[in-house]
Automatic annotation (TrEMBL), chain A:
The chain crosses the membrane at residues 50-69, 76-94. This is Iron uptake protein. Keywords: Membrane, Transmembrane, Transmembrane helix.
Automatic annotation (TrEMBL), chain B:
The keyword NADP does not apply. The chain crosses the membrane at residues 16-38, 149-173, 194-216, 345-366, 387-412, 424-443, 455-475, 487-504. This is PepSY-associated TM helix domain-containing protein. The lineage of its organism: Bacteria, Pseudomonadati, Pseudomonadota, Gammaproteobacteria, Cellvibrionales. It comes from the Bacteria. Signal peptide: none annotated. Keywords: Membrane, Transmembrane, Transmembrane helix.
Length: 98, 542
């Protein structure tokens, strides 16, 4: 695989990947924390509040490091792909949507 | 630490762009936020003395409540009993006419002869204005519009922190404890910016991530419950049991019962809330000096108003479960409401340092985009880009406009209630008038001259705060002085004004020695002599 030099010129594709599939991925990671960990979602327990708070560090880190992808397309593919895998896992392991 | 040079370069670009986009908004948020660390003394400083000569004794509160509810039945849904009255909480009982703290704010007291006294003259609104500026990064919009902007700024701010650290990492060990004071001004600013940023990094990470949640928690909750909630809901939140017919406990009895159950909790005010479907509920706001709190200055205990039993301790400092204490720690870390005065002062200075970080960040951008006169090309005219002068003027105008605007609107607090009918509106107007005027001034005069003049103007505006206290002391009909911690406000303003004067003098020195082509050049060297002006620009024209 060729390692082209990273540049800030193609920032828009990468940043939009961090914002959109990055948001979905953060949401899915929170879902994993709620489904398989001690978190909860959907009402106002402290566990659900904690799960909500998790969104900020997850999404902010994805937005900060998404620039390390070579191109916008790759960023969309990886972040989108990871979202699909995690959402699939969540879907397979129990009901989604209230 | 070794990092590939293309990664460093990429993150340096990202750092300067997100910095430029959100630096000025963050300056306002941090400057105003630093001041909100002393919200309570500030509000007391700014609020007129209570109109009632004597607060209703706490034992007579049930009589007061009965008389108010007979005359103002709309108060029944939500009212507050203040345990210790003060200028910023001027009456034993208060209520709002609108839902959730909206509408007119009424205050009630019993006179010595037992007759009911009611007023709608509120404590000063200026502390709230400063808090709004802080929470809405200085934007005058409804919070539905300001919140997403603030949240986006906070996300960009986090990206700026990460990218700034990445750029610094390779030279971290070499650069960290060094401040190169010398001819190279850019180097000096950069060392200063880096040291400030790195040593307050944990504070900045906390602020950015908590601010993202404060802005977007509705969206996060909605997205999570829409996409992830699996349907099996636990029973609805437990409200106080219905069907109580007995008498409620008096506030004195409530305080006694609380003392038995949580001796270290110091109640401040009681919030009563009545609704058809769940009856009367009581929430007690108070502090526990050994614990951080969910609100900016208080935590909350749910109490049964009939028995005084604690019903909900999730937000009660000192009585929380591990999960609730964890959530509260996020709020407490943002509000700096743990550890008492030393932590408040620490947050105050960290907040001011944050404002300086963004100010120096913008200066660095200007310095590194400055076109320089190069050896051998002295005859060429050097023209700065429009972007540099625009950003220079914006940085100077917005930052100093915020400083001067807050100072002047705070200073006005002691006189507005006697002179105008709507002090809150005037506070808002004064701040934004000064802010816009200063920004316009910086554009008209240019960054250099504008900076010096606006620094002196900010110093004068800040000096107006202790002057207002002084005038009030000399002519008591004009204003008031409450003593105690409110002198802190005057003292801080005097120190602040002196610091601004020092900065003004330093800046004036700087622009006298600025190269003629710099945006910091104020035109002291005659035009047409530029061919012979040396690099420092300090020598006299030929």
């Amino acid at each position: 695989m060729s390692t082209r030099k990273l540049t800030s010129r193609n920032w828009f594709g990468k940043a939009s990947a961090g914002a959109i599939p990055g948001f979905l991925l953060s949401l899915a990671l929170c879902g994993v924390f709620a489904r398989f960990g001690p978190g909860e979602v959907g009402f106002f327990s402290p566990q659900a509040q904690f799960t909500m708070w998790l969104m900020a560090p997850l999404w902010a880190c994805i937005l900060s490091f998404c620039f390390l992808f070579q191109t916008g397309a790759r960023a969309w593919l990886w972040l989108g792909g990871a979202s699909i895998v995690l959402w699939g896992l969540l879907y397979a392991s129990g009901p989604l949507m209230a | 630490m070794k990092i590939r040079s293309d990664i460093i370069r990429m993150y340096r670009d990202i750092h300067s762009w997100v910095g430029i986009v959100c630096g000025l908004a963050l300056f306002i948020a941090f400057y105003a936020g630093a001041i909100t660390m002393f919200e309570t003394p500030l509000q007391r400083w700014a609020s007129p003395p209570p109109q009632f000569e004597q607060p209703t004794p706490l034992e007579k509160t049930p009589e007061l409540v009965e008389k108010v509810l007979a005359k103002y039945p709309q108060a029944e849904n939500r009212y507050e009993i203040t345990l210790q009255t003060s200028p910023e909480r001027p009456a034993r009982m208060s209520w709002h006419t609108g839902p959730r703290g909206g509408g007119a704010h009424y205050f009630a007291n019993l006179a010595a002869d037992g007759s009911l006294q009611v007023t709608s003259e509120s404590p000063s609104a200026v502390a709230q204005l400063v808090d709004d500026l802080h929470r809405q990064v200085g934007l005058p919009f409804e919070h539905e519009i300001s919140d997403p902007i603030m949240g986006t700024v906070s996300l960009l701010y986090f990206i700026a922190l990460v990218s700034g650290v990445i750029v610094l990492l390779p030279t971290l060990v070499k650069d960290l404890f060094i401040l190169r004071i010398g001819k190279n001004l850019k180097r000096l600013w950069l060392d200063f910016h880096n040291a400030l940023g790195l040593f307050s990094l944990p504070f900045h990470i906390v602020m950015s991530l908590t601010a993202v949640v404060f802005a977007f928690h509705h969206q996060f909750y909605d997205a999570q419950s829409a996409a992830l909630a699996s349907g099996e809901r636990p029973p609805a939140e437990t409200h106080a049991e219905m069907g109580h017919t007995g008498d409620t406990l008096s506030p004195v009895a409530i305080v006694d019962r609380l003392k038995e159950q949580s001796p270290e909790f110091r109640p401040a005010y009681l919030q009563y809330h009545y609704e058809e479907d769940h009856g009367l509920e009581l929430r007690v706001a108070g502090v526990n000096p050994r614990h951080g709190m969910r609100g900016s200055t208080v935590g909350f205990a749910g109490v049964d108003p009939y028995s005084g039993e604690l019903t909900m301790t999730g937000y009660m400092p000192g009585e929380q479960s591990g999960w609730f204490a964890t959530i509260t720690s996020f709020f407490a870390l943002h509000f700096g409401n743990f550890g008492g005065s030393p932590v408040r002062w620490g947050y105050f200075f960290l907040g001011l340092a944050g404002a300086v970080l963004f100010y120096t960040g913008n200066l660095l951008w200007i310095e590194s985009h400055r076109k320089k006169r190069r050896k051998g090309y002295e005859h060429r005219e050097v023209k700065q880009t429009g972007a540099s002068s625009v950003l220079g003027a914006l940085t100077v105008g917005v930052s100093l406009g915020c400083v001067a605007g807050i100072s002047l609107t705070v200073a006005a607090a002691k006189f507005l209630p006697q002179w105008v009918g709507d002090p809150a509106g005037w506070h808002f107007g004064i701040y934004y008038a000064v802010f816009l005027l200063a920004t316009a001034w910086a554009f008209i005069r240019g960054a250099a001259t504008g900076a010096v003049e606006l620094l002196y103007a900010s110093a004068a505006a800040t000096l107006a705060i202790p002057s207002a206290s002084l005038v009030s002391a000399l002519v008591p009909e004009l204003g008031w002085n409450h003593g105690g911690s409110t002198y802190l406000v005057d003292l801080a303003a005097v120190v602040g004004a002196l610091a601004l004067v020092v900065l003004a003098r330093k800046t004036a020195e700087r622009i006298r020695s600025a190269p003629a082509e710099s945006i910091w050049f104020a035109g002291r060297v005659e035009q047409g002599a530029s061919e012979s002006v040396d690099r420092a620009g300090a020598s006299s024209p030929a």
